[in-house]
């Protein structure tokens, strides 16, 4: 970020903000304090003697289904232990457990034998082949750090992958897939090559010169190899023929899993910056800046349009309307002529108020979550914290949802307050989320259970989520609705006529559907580049850490949705169409439709997902994200337009 960028004061301001937010992500919390390691016999409360290697779920870019380590026929720890996992880790399908790999020198872990004709062995080997064919990746952890596989990529750069493949495949036509391209010896047709050996290198920072005991781990890398060992007692980590698994299981097969560990001292790497070598190797920083500048141009364009309307056109309109006589005003055309109808309650006001209550809940949850992420509280080192934070905030923010929904429903003139409270508490949560989302949720969970995936949420966790929902969120919604109904209705600046005014015939561009479709284009243009990185982190299992950029794009999205909706709202009012309530919500909410279209494009152009189960899961989760985004953006547009309409009609003289 030290490159000189000559884009004027505004760019320098954005640069400073993003630099600040990105620097915030380097903070570490008390729960992530450094751990020192000492030699055997020299440990204590402040220094551990055992370095544990944990294994996590296995995932693939060709499948949405993650699997636990134990599902594959790998070597297992005789005294298996599992660290406690938070709600976010469970929802994301992370299953961390101890491994049989002890941090020592070269060592044979175990031997896996497969007998021809034994149905159980055939099933285990077929599942292992499936994992290699779909390029499933190991994810190992040492001292809360991912054990990375670093290799050279184009332009002489090095990429450090937090996972490494279990093996690879040379197809029947001789094409080397995935990791098989790294070794010319992987050339036999219709053959799988198992990476049954890993060379682990642990880099540490010694505390001798800094006044603390032992050493702190600052990096853990490995290199996977395929080596055919003939004897478990006589193993080697160099040379030898690759460990081949024929495509056709015609003879007995034994796979010996081995590993070696080396240590390297490097006092130039500080513990607080030990993630840097992983994050720096990931590209996209320049693209992120392009995304910010692209969004900034759109915001400046919209801001200029809104400023022109507010300062010139609208100001002249107000001055003219306040100077002319009432008879002359009747001959005028424009937004003042609908003053007696502009605050006429909308149709389906109950549903709109419920949507706005839930959208407010999503907005506050997203803002707080991103703000905490920028401060480093939800860094990648704190696994599952982002999802846990979002779910907990969602549950606790039932009160604002109930309050906003009840207050707006009362403003719309609604009298069925009991129905509104129940719908606010249960309609979206129960019908939309339980029926629509939970239809997908339970259907998807059923698919995951059938497939044996680790992403299948345990029944106990499902019960806990429902308990949080109905035990905390629903009562808080009732509390918010109670205070919302106790408040007086929002006072409108003008009276509403008893007889509705006839709306004149509209041109094509001022009709509802064209305006709604156009309204979502600019907000989507602000986020589509950032959206690519978010989808990559979800579906391509890439680490996302640029929360400073994301928070800035979030603010830009708020401004863009607000300004685009206000702009179109003004044009429609000038055309004497006063049906703005639902239109303001749908105008910015239509951004979610473009999100869905982009997700479909991403699926077919960027992903390599195969299989019906993975496809159903992808589009099921995508529909959940689209619905949440629809409520979020729609709420932003509505309240921006609500403020604008109240403001302009409060400054004109109406007899």
From TrEMBL:
Q: Looking at the record's lineage, which domain of life comes first?
A: Eukaryota
Q: How does it sit in the membrane?
A: Multi-pass membrane protein
- Pfam families recorded: EMP70 (PF02990)
Spell out the subcellular localization from the entry: Membrane
Gene Ontology terms, cellular component aspect? membrane
Q: From the UniProt record, list the coiled-coil ranges.
A: none
Please provide the Gene Ontology terms (biological process) for this protein: protein localization to membrane
Q: By its UniProt entry, which PANTHER family does this protein fall under?
A: TRANSMEMBRANE 9 SUPERFAMILY MEMBER, TRANSMEMBRANE 9 SUPERFAMILY PROTEIN
Protein name as annotated: Transmembrane 9 superfamily member
Biological source species:
Sander lucioperca
């Amino acid at each position: 970020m030290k490159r000189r960028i000559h884009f004027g004061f505004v760019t320098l301001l954005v640069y400073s903000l993003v630099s600040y937010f990105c620097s915030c992500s380097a903070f570490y919390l008390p729960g992530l304090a450094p751990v020192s390691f000492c030699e055997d016999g020299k440990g204590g409360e402040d220094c551990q003697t055992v370095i544990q290697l944990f294994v996590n779920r296995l995932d693939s870019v060709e499948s949405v289904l993650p699997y636990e380590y134990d599902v594959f026929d790998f070597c297992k720890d005789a005294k298996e232990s599992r660290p406690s996992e938070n709600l976010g880790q469970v929802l994301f399908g992370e299953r961390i457990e101890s491994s049989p790999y002890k941090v020592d020198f070269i060592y044979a872990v175990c031997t896996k034998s497969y007998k021809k004709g034994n149905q159980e062995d055939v099933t285990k080997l077929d599942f292992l082949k499936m994992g290699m064919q779909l390029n499933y990746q190991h994810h190992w952890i040492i001292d809360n750090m991912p054990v990375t596989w670093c290799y050279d990529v184009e332009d002489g750069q090095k990429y450090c992958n937090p996972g490494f493949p279990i093996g690879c495949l040379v197809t029947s036509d001789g094409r080397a897939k995935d990791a098989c391209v790294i070794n010319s010896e992987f050339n036999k047709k219709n053959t799988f090559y198992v990476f049954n050996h890993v060379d682990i290198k642990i880099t540490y920072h010694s505390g001798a010169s800094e006044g603390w005991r032992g050493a702190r781990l600052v990096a853990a890398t490995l290199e996977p190899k395929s080596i055919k060992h003939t004897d478990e007692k006589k193993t080697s980590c160099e040379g030898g023929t690759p460990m081949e698994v024929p495509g056709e299981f015609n003879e007995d097969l034994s796979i010996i899993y081995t590993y070696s560990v080396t240590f390297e001292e490097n006092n130039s790497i500080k513990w607080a910056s030990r993630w840097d070598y992983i994050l720096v190797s990931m590209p996209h920083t320049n693209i992120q800046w392009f995304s910010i500048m692209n969004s900034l141009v759109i915001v400046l364009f919209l801001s200029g349009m809104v400023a022109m309307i507010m300062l010139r056109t609208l100001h002249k309109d107000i001055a003219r309307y306040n100077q002319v006589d009432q008879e002359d005003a009747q001959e005028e055309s424009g937004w003042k002529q609908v003053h007696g109808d502009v605050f006429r309650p909308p149709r389906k006001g109950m549903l709109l108020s419920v949507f706005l209550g839930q959208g407010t809940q999503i907005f506050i949850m997203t803002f707080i979550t991103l703000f905490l992420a920028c401060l480093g509280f939800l860094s990648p080192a704190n696994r599952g914290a982002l999802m846990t934070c979002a779910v907990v905030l969602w549950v606790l923010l039932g009160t604002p949802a109930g309050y906003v929904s009840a207050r707006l429903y009362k403003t719309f003139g609604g009298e069925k307050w009991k129905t509104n409270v129940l719908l606010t508490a249960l309609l979206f949560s129960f019908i939309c989320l339980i029926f629509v989302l939970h239809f997908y949720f339970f259907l998807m969970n059923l698919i995951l259970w059938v497939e044996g995936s680790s992403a299948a949420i345990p029944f106990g966790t499902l019960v806990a989520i429902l308990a949080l929902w109905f035990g905390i969120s629903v009562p808080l919604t009732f509390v918010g609705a109670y205070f919302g109904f106790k408040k007086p209705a929002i006072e409108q600046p003008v009276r509403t006529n008893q007889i509705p005014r006839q709306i004149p015939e509209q041109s094509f561009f001022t009709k509802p559907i064209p305006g709604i479709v156009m309204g979502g284009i600019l907000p989507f243009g602000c986020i589509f580049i950032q959206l690519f990185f978010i989808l990559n982190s979800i579906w391509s299992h890439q680490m996302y850490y640029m929360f400073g950029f994301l928070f800035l794009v979030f603010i830009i999205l708020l401004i863009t949705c607000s300004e685009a909706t206000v702009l179109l709202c003004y044009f429609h009012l000038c055309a004497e169409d006063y049906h703005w309530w639902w239109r303001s919500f749908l105008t910015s909410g239509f951004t979610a439709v473009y999100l869905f279209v982009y997700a479909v494009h991403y699926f077919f152009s960027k992903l390599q997902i195969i299989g019906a189960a993975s496809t159903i899961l992808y589009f099921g989760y995508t529909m959940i994200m689209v619905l949440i985004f629809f409520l979020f953006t729609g709420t932003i547009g509505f309240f921006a337009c609500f403020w604008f309409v109240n403001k302009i009609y409060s400054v004109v003289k109406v007899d």
